[in-house]
Give the backbone structure.
Amino acid sequence: MVLVLVGSVIGSLGAIFLKWGAHAVNRNWTSIAFNWRLAVGVGTYLLSSVLFVKGMSNGELSVLFPLVSLGYVCTLAWSRLFFHEPITTVKLAGVGLILVGITCLGLGGR
Amino acid sequence: MESLGESLSPAASSSEVHVPDPAKRRLAIFIVLACTLLVALAQYLIKLGANHLSHAGLLATLIGIFTIPQLFAGYCLYGVFTVMFVFALRHGELSILYPLIALSYVWVTITAVLAFHDTMNPLKLAGLAIIVAGVAVLGWGGGK
């Protein structure tokens, strides 16, 4: 359970680096090959996936699913912090609905 | 809707942050939504592969990614998804695009019912509907 929680937070951090790295990419291939931000992003993504595989292989989905979706909430905060993306009511409503929906899905899976 | 352009003062906007036109934002949203199908397929394969290492350690899990065909294929698909996602991120907001990946839950649940004869119940169905509503809200709001 802790593995999945840590995995979802790490995954949301990985997305930050992907976004950061994405803007450094241009038509020059070296900009992709030597893009440390993309590398960190992919690395943290892989790490979070490994944690998910470990955490999911033995656990109650009704608990694990909502934990995974907490990563979306984190992303709202990170995006505000690092990219000055405003937290709008639309985003809060969307993420809120997704959280409730995924929780229902997990509860229904028991 | 508050305007993104106004909220980014010259001091706050670095070279990292730029606001593309709505058409590109919509393209980014469409790409991510289409890619949730890839994520669902990848998760299906990874779940199949993960059954082979229920008691494996972290290192054995890492090795398994390369030796268990389903895990390997699943992670390759994740790679394709990541490339598409990075492309989409160039044209859209992270706080819109990242939660859209939740649509993959809908595909995964449908796959589980069709492929594994997993049971469908009212609570799950409500969950799917609420997720789709959330994704629709984000897609609608982010594409403007």
User: Anything to note?
Assistant: Chain A has one domain: 2-108. Chain A touches chain B through 56 residues (CB under 8 Å). Residues 2-108 of chain A form one domain.
